[in-house]
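Quick one: co-fold with calcium ion.
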Amino acid sequence: MPNKTLGLDNRLYDYLLSVSLREPEILRQLREETARHPRAGMQIAPEQGQFMALLAQLLGATKTLEIGVFTGYSSLCVALALPPTGKIVACDVSEEYTATARRYWEAAGVAHKIDLRIAPALQTLDDLLAAGVAETFDFAFIDADKDNYDAYFELSLQLVRTGGLIAIDNVLWRGQVADPQVQDSSTQAIRAFNEKLHRDERVTLSLLTIADGLTLALKR
Ligand code: CA
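Sure, here it is.
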């Protein structure tokens, strides 16, 4: 297929970072600490964090949602980009992983912006809808268990305002979505989700090849 997005070799990736990454020291420390974690692969790429901070600014976001916190890199990127009155509702099930996140939010002076809910995210999102805050979020980032991606998306679509943005991570799943040999449940869930979104007229759509694939869905 002509005009495809270029794959990046290490040299070009390093160049990209060298001329564009503006990573605050606190984020660099968090990224390096998380790189030693046994599940380090769950951390987003730094250029993706910077891009999400840009999106938050572009949206004029003051209220955002994060589904899947891990050690907090993405939420810290967004929190630093929000105004002083900004709020993130952050969903995760792990006290252990989010203990690291909380430590860095404190150190960065943004802990007051983050409302961490330790519970299954489906329950937290249902609670938000029951509390009457549908259509009030500017931005949502979905990066949790892949089997629930569709359910997270449907609930997020109710929670974001018209013109609000939902970003969904890992939609290229290290290339496995395009490999018919791979049939595990996470891969199947991402494939089905991508196909559904392709046809979904409720959103304006773009799938970016940044990091492991990031879909942007703008609520119409
Ligand atoms: Ca991810």
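If it helps, DSSP finds eight helices and seven strands in the chain.
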